[in-house]
Specification:
Elements lengths: L15 E6 L6 H17 L9 E4 L1 H13 L4 H9 L5 H17 L3 H12 L1 H8 L3 H9 L6 H17 L5 H9 L10 H4 L9 H17 L2
Parallel strand pairs: 1-2
Amino acid sequence: MIAGHHMDTIRSVTRIRLRSVEEPLDRPAAAWEAVRFLSTAEALGLLPASPESIETLDVRTVRAVLKEAAAAGVARQALAEADSRDERDADAWVDVLVHANVALADCPIPDRTWPGLADLLGIDLLAKLVGVAPASARRYLAGDRATPDAVAARLHWIALIAGDLAGSYNEFGIRRWFSRARSQLDGKAPADVLAGEWSPDDQGPRAVRTLATRLLDAAAT
């Protein structure tokens, strides 16, 4: 369960290794939105630079990530809301985090997202998933070439999926998840559905995201 002052480790990917939760984020709805926010922010490359793992779900941590997101031009309104509300109010934090999660889901930031996803998935798999040659992916990663809008949208969608999967899998498991056939995808692997010049609005990619989101829902209960 997410709720409560103590929790089993629910994430093992990179820096987020949550073991406890503090008020007011110990309310189930607040904890759920906060975990989702941190998961997505990490996948998008929005965690503040630090060598330390994040082991406690608390207001200080969430506020720091909100500031990092706002500095990247994302979720500025959510940060303003956080600054204007009583930070001891769990319901207020639910509102702030719902708005922050919507903002993260709607705002591709490829320059921040390429490095973390390349480390997580490997450049070859990531290039395949976003529909570009590995050489092109390396140029986008290095900043030698601007990421085209269509590629940025696909990269963002992969990051959202990876954030959802991080509630259930480690790095190896996430990479393997993309390659395993799924009955919910008519026997195809997610990597087969996410092939070529797809769009996040297409039915197949949306089905892949739904499949990943169900795993995040399960990890939160």
